[in-house]
Write a structure and sequence with these properties.
2,3-Dihydroxybiphenyl 1,2-Dioxygenase, domain 1; four-stranded mixed beta sheet; 3 helices; 8 strands; Glyas_Fos-R_dOase_dom; metal ion binding; metal-binding; Catechol 2,3-dioxygenase-like lactoylglutathione lyase family enzyme; dioxygenase activity
Length: about 170
């Protein structure tokens, strides 16, 4: 793939993130509990050669659900045909992505999630001055976990440069 570094396309608004799942019903239950919302669209279908070709596939049949958060949609997509191989996402694997949920009180959310049976990859972490730039990001708290298919998920209580646009 070649790109032109000086090309500008103005893609400055995200609509949704799509997550391929192996079991739509299980994933809907997981994200319903995680977000505290109901899917706006649930157990719908897409299929056909035109759609398949737009995805780089020869055929496609899928079920999907969509959650609408305040600032982003989450599409959960279960391909029934062709069924894909399970990926091995991890923080250090090129091509892996993560979805980050912003919270005000990370330690409280973390503990409530642990009490509800969620497993985290490690303990919550707070960035220290000698570990992160920009300096105003010091104090940002993070915790990482996975969804049922191994999608990388993060909680963040951001400070400074990690807080994003206000």
């Amino acid at each position: 793939m070649s790109t032109t570094a000086d090309a500008k396309f103005g893609l400055d608004t995200a609509a949704h993130v799509g997550i391929a799942v192996s079991d739509l019903d299980r994933s809907v239950a997981f994200y319903r509990a995680l977000t505290g919302t109901q899917p706006a669209v649930n157990d719908e279908n897409m299929h056909g050669a035109g759609f398949a070709h737009s995805q780089g596939l020869s055929r496609s049949k899928l079920r999907y659900a969509t959650f609408h958060l305040r600032n982003l949609g989450i599409d959960l997509i279960q391909f029934e045909d062709p069924v894909g191989e399970r990926s091995q996402p991890a923080a250090n694997r090129p091509g892996s992505m993560h979805l980050c949920f912003q919270v005000d009180d990370l330690r409280s959310v973390y503990q409530r999630m642990r009490d509800a049976g969620y497993e985290f990859l490690g303990e919550p972490y707070t960035f220290a001055a000698d570990e992160v730039t920009p300096p105003d990001a010091v104090g940002t708290e993070v915790a990482y976990f996975n969804d049922p298919d191994g999608t990388n998920l993060e909680l963040i209580a951001p400070k400074g440069g990690f807080a994003g646009p206000q």
